[in-house]
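User: Could you check the structure of this?
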Amino acid sequence: MNRAILEGLKRRISSVHGVWVDELPSVLWVMRTTPKTTSGESPFNLAFGTEAVLPLEMVFLKLCTSNYERGHSEEGLRANLDLLEERRARAHLRALAFKKVTARIYNRRVRPRPI
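Assistant: Sure, the predicted structure tokens are below.
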């Protein structure tokens, strides 16, 4: 995880040292809201049961943010929380399947040595 944070900071900061403090929150936001390959879900989604709304989406309104109604939103959040355990279980199964495929590909190249 630390390596991923450092790589994200290196991409954003080329030669100016000391600016990393200002860029750290945006790098962490990206890491929390980007879906991961193994589970197919973002860590934010697995923790809170809903997709994150970017601050920029509140400034430049999209269809989903312009039609926001508090009552419907709260009902949707409750429904998402009810399905959260199921979503986590599905993500866990996807991660296990990904690891199994990765192990199969790795083991295909391994040649046993005679003793």
